[in-house]
Amino acid sequence: MNFKPETSERIFAVQDRSNFSNSPSRPQSPDIRTDREQPRRQNSVPVKSPETPFAHPISRSLTTRLFLSHFLSTWNSRLFEMGAVLFIAAIFPGTLRPMSIYALVRSGAAIVLSPAVGSWIDAGDRLSVVRVSIIGQRLAVAASCGIFWILHEQKDLGTKLRTGLFALTIVLACVEKLCSIMNLVSVERDWVVVITQDNEVARRLLNARMRRIDLFCKLLGPLVISLVNGASTIVAIWVALGMNCSSVLVEYFTIATVFKKVPALRRTATRDAEEGIELQSATDESNFPPVSKRLLNSLQPVASRLVPLQSLPHYFHHPAFLPSISLSLLYFTVLSFSGQMITFLLAVGYTSLYVGIARTISTIFELSATWIAPFIQQRIGAVRGGIWFLSWQMIWLAGGLSWFFAGSEALTKTGVFAASGLVGGVILSRVGLWGFDLCAQNIVQEEVDEDNRGAFSTVEASFQNFFELLSYASTIAFSKPNQFQWPVVITVGAVYTAGGLYAVFVRKRRGHLVHAPSCIKPKLDGPR
């Protein structure tokens, strides 16, 4: 991919300076209004302190290393995610139960344990956290590939041994998923904010390019492993293992170079000590016997780390809650060219070739959002841009749903006709989906303070995995192809619910949803 580094360097280093220098003069006194008292102005250029009048330019070598590390992490995660499905299908042919158990437990672990990961991200050394995520992810994938090879080749293993080995792959899948979340949240939600500092233009461009890498890996990673698996499952296992092991050192040292080039990423992990003091003072005031007090002191920190329930009230009461939960609701979907929708399309008459073509076109539209979203945000801000993108998504999904129901009476005879309208609406709606994703991400990055970015973002990830599980539950309840319209209705309902919640946020933040046209605004304002 061509990131046009020379152009981006000028944008990072010059555009923010020119915007600041051309902007109207502002008073130098700090703005003491809180988010609840006065919403932040999304259309203004970020105010910089007198000591640092201009944002520090981001070098091309820094962004190249950041993109390379993110690409390797995302590529291996996407490739193994699809590869595991194919490997399990080959090892346990004729049944979907092992795959269902594998996916459900993996998602369940992400829902329950993601907040604990977020607490560690906020409290720990940034480089150590990312390095642990890299090593943990690679070790889990390598061990899983080894077990998949044994299960595929050793057909004479006993039932108990096969079951035990498969259970071990599920545990490793949970580790891989949590390490993937740790890496993603650390880099996208924390490192990017610190690297760009007050340079909002640079942050939007970095967000867009990181998402572009995600979508690129989402398309090509599964495609590559699927093509190799079509020739030989054993070769596919070795390919997944080889790519996983060959990239670990590159990713490990590349991210370390980024860390060294940005001094602001260094911090001292003092939160654990502060929490320990608070916990000690709380237990000292109680009247527990000495043995019970010691037991409480040892168990309570462990429990709070595994299930940090204190993150939930902070998430629900945060000003960025509505954009975050709106984005999470969009994961409650069967209209994403994933397993559910692909299975339906094949059942109604689509061939694998046409499904692949539709998925490729959809990915092209998704990638286009990574160029459109920064432009829209620069022109009208992230808050207004979010409602525009969500409206775009809702309009096209409503059109696709209408076409689908109009042709549903003849679904058994001309299913391709009814499904094609739905496919077209879904493809066009993807621009709105990923445009809103980038707007919501930018809002969260701006609103959430440094000490709580990890906790907030991992609670968000838990809700995303929860709604994704609900989408699978909808197709379990309505499992026949001629019942697919009901999961589709549920999906569209979730999107409109997300739109309603985000509209509430926009109304609170801006005081209105839409601007009155200039031709009627004087009448509304009255005589001057």
Q: For this structure, what is the CATH class of the largest domain?
A: Mainly Alpha
* Uncertain stretches of 5 or more adjacent residues: 1-55, 269-289, 291-307
Largest sheet: none
Structurally, the number of domains stands at: 2
Number of strands: 0
What is the global morphology? globular
Distance between the termini: 55 Å
Structural class: mainly alpha
SS strand fraction? under 5%
| CATH evolutionary superfamily of the largest domain | MFS general substrate transporter like domains
* Helix segment tally: 18
> Can you give the helix content as a percent range?
over 70%
Rounded to an integer in angstroms, the radius of gyration calculated over CA atoms is 25 Å
Write down the overall mean pLDDT. Answer: 77
What is the element layout, followed by pairings?
Blueprint: H1 5-22, H2 60-91, H3 97-123, H4 126-153, H5 159-196, H6 200-231, H7 233-261, H8 271-284, H9 290-306, H10 311-316, H11 321-329, H12 339-348, H13 352-380, H14 382-406, H15 415-447, H16 453-477, H17 485-510, H18 521-525
Helix pairs in contact: 1-6, 2-4, 2-5, 2-6, 2-7, 3-5, 3-16, 4-5, 4-7, 5-6, 5-16, 6-7, 6-13, 8-9, 11-16, 11-17, 13-14, 13-15, 14-15, 14-17
